[in-house]
């Protein structure tokens, strides 16, 4: 009886990663999926896709890996703070470690040759494979026939003649194959990784510049929420942009952080570190008043809460032109 080979397949939830799993399942491979979680990309699409495909799904925390790659990218950064080549490499490396631990036979990804000019050209795919240390156990099922065959292909675990040969940026062939497999819900290409966004990248860079490689991990997660304003090297305040932000800030900020609001009008929640000085707190309160619905130039009451203690101070909203100097990303 023919052995059933087992693959761990990286699943972002995008079309390509779903198709890679489909073509493996079609060949009778036992497939389980891995989706990585970090402050910069989520797992929702991967979770939905795994459910739709009916494969067992593992969510693996990748925070420390990606923070390391962002700060020391052996192969450089993309247009923003995205270390794509090193990120791919480490995703495969982590999958390789799990492969050994869990007794799988090979790793699969949904990479397509030449789909991205920098990170998925032939040379980059080779670099990623080699640096991952699992080069010979890595299969890219969507373009396997176009690149150097690895062990699962050479030894016939997979029939390469039955695999697609996708290359380039044209997604029509993938969409046709998706139709054949009955895949309907797949996200639009690109997007989903905050590291590729310049504005977010600037916020992350500011945090790492000020807090260093051991930056508080809660502060890293908070980068996704609200406007960030730096009052001093060691003092940054975060201003909720809308109600959802305000609720998230309330829930996710450090318990010891100060919460600043204008209680009598529609207001943002402003979060400030407990180490803030009185003078800086005055500035933070003026900023809060600036973003609250208050009449310009008129004094307003601002409530500052720390734990179970609250007090009220009176400030004049900061002029919008004066706020700009503090903004991490304007
Ligand atoms: S886009 Fe983001 S998640 Fe994707 S490889 Fe680049 S850094 Fe990693």
Structure description:
It is a single chain. This protein is an alpha/beta fold and 330 residues long. The chain has 2 domains: 6-191, HUPs (Rossmann fold, 3-Layer(aba) Sandwich), CATH 3.40.50; 225-326, no CATH class. It is built from 12 helices and 11 strands. A 6-stranded antiparallel β-sheet has the order 6-7-9-8-10-11, sandwiched between helices. A 5-stranded parallel β-sheet has the order 3-2-1-4-5, with helices on both faces. Strand 2, helix 2 (44-53) and strand 3 form a beta-alpha-beta unit. Helix 4 (84-102) crosses helix 5. The protein is elongated and about 80 Å long. The model has no long low-confidence stretch (mean pLDDT 95). Bound molecules: iron/sulfur cluster.
């Amino acid at each position: 009886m023919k052995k059933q080979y087992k693959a761990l397949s990286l699943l972002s939830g995008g079309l390509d990663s779903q198709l890679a799993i489909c073509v493996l399942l079609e060949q009778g491979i036992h497939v389980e999926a891995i989706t990585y979680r970090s402050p910069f990309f989520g797992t929702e699409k991967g979770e939905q896709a795994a459910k739709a495909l009916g494969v067992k799904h593992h969510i693996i925390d990748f925070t420390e890996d990606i923070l390391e790659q962002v700060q020391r990218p052996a192969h450089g950064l993309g247009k923003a703070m995205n270390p794509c080549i090193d990120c791919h490499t480490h995703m495969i490396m982590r999958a390789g470690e799990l492969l050994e631990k869990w007794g799988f036979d090979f790793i699969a990804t949904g990479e397509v040759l030449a789909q991205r000019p920098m990170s998925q050209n032939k040379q980059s795919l080779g670099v990623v494979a080699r640096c991952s240390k699992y080069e010979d156990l890595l299969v890219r099922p969507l373009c396997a026939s176009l690149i150097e065959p690895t062990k699962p292909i050479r030894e016939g675990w997979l029939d390469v003649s039955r695999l697609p040969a996708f290359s380039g940026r044209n997604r029509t062939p993938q969409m046709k194959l998706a139709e054949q497999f009955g895949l309907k819900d797949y996200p639009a290409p690109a997007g989903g990784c905050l590291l590729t966004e310049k504005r977010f990248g600037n916020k992350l860079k500011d945090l790492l510049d000020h807090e260093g490689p051991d930056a508080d991990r809660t502060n890293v997660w908070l980068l996704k929420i609200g406007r960030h304003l730096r009052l001093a090297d060691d003092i940054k305040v975060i201003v909720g942009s809308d109600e959802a932000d305000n609720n998230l800030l309330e829930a996710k900020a450090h318990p010891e952080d100060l919460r600043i609001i204008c209680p009598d009008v529609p207001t943002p929640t402003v979060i400030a570190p407990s180490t803030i000085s009185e003078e800086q707190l005055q500035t933070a309160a003026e900023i809060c008043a600036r973003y609250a619905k208050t009449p310009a130039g008129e004094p307003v009451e601002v409530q500052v809460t720390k734990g179970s203690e609250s007090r009220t101070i009176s400030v004049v909203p900061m002029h919008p032109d004066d706020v700009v100097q503090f903004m991490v990303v304007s």
